[in-house]
Amino acid sequence: MKTKLVVTPQLLQEMEATVRNSAIYKAKIQEAKEFVSKDKEFIASIFASMKVK
Amino acid sequence: MKKESYTLLANSANTYNFVSVGKRGEILKGVYFEEIGINLYNLVLLDYDYESKMWSDESISDNGDIITIMATIVQIIKVFLNQNKESVVFFKGNSVSRQKLYNRIVQNYFEELSEYFAIWGSFENEREIVIKNKYYQAFYINIK
Lengths: 53, 144
Prior knowledge:
The complex is a heterodimer of chains A (53) and B (144). With 53 residues, chain A is mainly α. Helix content of chain A is 72%, strand content 0%. Chain A has three helices and no strands. Chain B has 144 residues and is of the alpha+beta class. Chain B has one domain (15-143). In chain B, 26% of the residues lie in helices and 39% in strands. Chain B is built from three helices and eight strands, in the order ββββαβααβββ. In chain B, strands 1, 2, 3, 4, 5, 6, 7 and 8 form an eight-stranded mixed beta sheet that branches. The chains are: A mainly alpha (53), B alpha+beta (144). At the A-B interface, α1, α2 and α3 of A face β1, β2, β3, β5 and β6 of B.
């Protein structure tokens, strides 16, 4: 078990500064973009349903 | 279904952090909303190892607190969409286990989520309003 975690503002800043440049984050975003590109019409219908209210 | 959730740690916009506490110790988690289309945000859930400074997406951290994690993610989605009412949140598991986690979240919180949000599911060639207890590859959520 690891030592007691103390979440400092510096630690949060470190996370914020590194996450979007991490390979895993980039891979997830790329995969999401590829997936939603196949759902364009469906997504458009979702946004259209939001506008009619 | 109201369940205990973790306290969200203050951070920048579109970023939510919390600490998972369980049998494996404390795991720092980050939930990120990345805009991948106009008002379309991808939810990304990652673990941060503050010792090695490495990011991972262990879908099952096996920390014995999955119920609390699910409740926390639901809270985060609510907070985000209430602050971004014109937006749609997209999330998809990139592994079977992660897909199962997201399906568990949607199904376990179906009534609570459905009260405020429209939940859409995508599975192979099917695109529809989510049907309870049906399995989906990906989800889209927006405020009703």
